[in-house]
Amino acid sequence: MAEGSLPGLIEEMLQPGFYPHPVRVPVELIQTHISFVLLTGDYVYKVKKPVNLGFLDYSTLGKRQYFCERELQMNQLGAPGLYLEVVPVTRAGEGFKLGGEGERVEYAVKMLQFPQDALFVNMLEGGGLTEKHLEELGRVVAKFHTEAPVSEWILTFGEVSQIRKTVEQNYELSKKYIGGPQTREQFEETKQYTDKFFAQRQEQLLSRIQSQIIRGCHGDLHLRNIALCGDEILLFDCIEFKDEFRFVDVMYDVGFTVMDLQGRGRVDLANAFLNTYLEHTGDWEGLQVLPLYLTRQAYVRGKVSSLLLDDAGVSAEEKAKAHQTAAHYYRLAWQYTQPRTGKLILMSGLSGSGKSTVARKLARRLGAIHIRSDAVRKHLAGIPLNQRGGEEIYTAEMTQRTYHRLLQLGVMLAEEGWQVILDAKYDRQVLRRDAIALAEDRQLPLQIIHCTAPVEVLRDRLHRRTGDIADATADLLAAQLAGAEPFTEAEQVYVRTVDTGKEIEAQL
Fold first, then answer.
1. Same domain? 157 vs 297
2. 295: left (phi > 0), else alpha (psi -120 to 50), else beta?
3. Fewer CB within 10 Å, N- or C-terminus of the chain?
4. pTM for the whole structure
């Protein structure tokens, strides 16, 4: 096939008369390394390319039919109602026909078409993707993973040998691009990082199996596979062609979204998604393995872009763009392997003092992990975040457990190279002393951000607070004021005060 040309079937599918329903002219073609996607107005048709890429085999008609049917079935959880049916394509004289009684020569997945500007990737490029969208996505993906299937068979895919096999396959397939979009140094250092990870982190990877965090996930959760349809976020086009890419650690999915946003220069939006997801799942331990999946997903993006360089159906202009994209993501994969310095940041202040608002703003700027004591407390108690807690979760014993867990997570993640914001009152010297002592013992940078505002402002904020996971009300203020202990001289060296009654951005 000449470079830039299309198969006869696809040429026909670009013609309005091919379809048994009205179409929007012109029919639009989107081409990936494995599929032709045709947008007709009301419906989308996806035709799989007859390729065998090693990790994926669509080389026979029977296999393409099988994987079309799997795609239809597997996308019902994340995008119910979007996938309609698998439609056969038959011979019609010298041409082709959708459906019909002739010889079946191809299959297409038929879906409802939504506006292309509903895709998260296009919303981002158009400036319409907001922090609120990503927070909602965090909640949607958390629910998706909670409901995703898990079994003894699925858990076997979390074994080190299984994970390593898919990572090594990426390196094998990309070797031919060294000296092109990939460099020898980046290739070797990225591979050294994952080799070391598999050698030294086996216990952590095993704990993910024991915690049943290996699930039937999406497998390809980047911005082109997420759409806002009406008020509903849909997760579509999940992996159907290889179990190893779908039966994975939930952090595999999370890593794809985070990497895609960071790779497009939006660290703030990636942070909004990640922190919301973690808060709703309580899976902060997952951050120990997330760097593996971040580098893996960036490398996959580089590899997939590289594959277009060998596709005879892709134009020279598209290949030049693919080369540039591949180089960018190979470098991003390498950057994820570089060592980082962690830090602990303690928020301090009474309820309503704006701690969480300041912490959230800081997290977006720094790419920091924001852990709220309210979320930790409710996860420990085993109650939903949006459910109001009773007196039993606010006992002295439960408060002690909450702060212990909070500090345990903070130190663990800071030692992993994350900047971590522990969002709690930290109004007692003993609580601050424990955190300072542990940070100093582990030689972790530490800062305390003390949020203040006039009492009448605190009371007004608490009266107006709605839709938040925090349970504190204005009638607790008097007790909090009486119990708050001032910073000692030794503590003052770590403290930075933020008056949240004034403009916050300037103080940050």
1. yes
2. alpha
3. N
4. 0.91
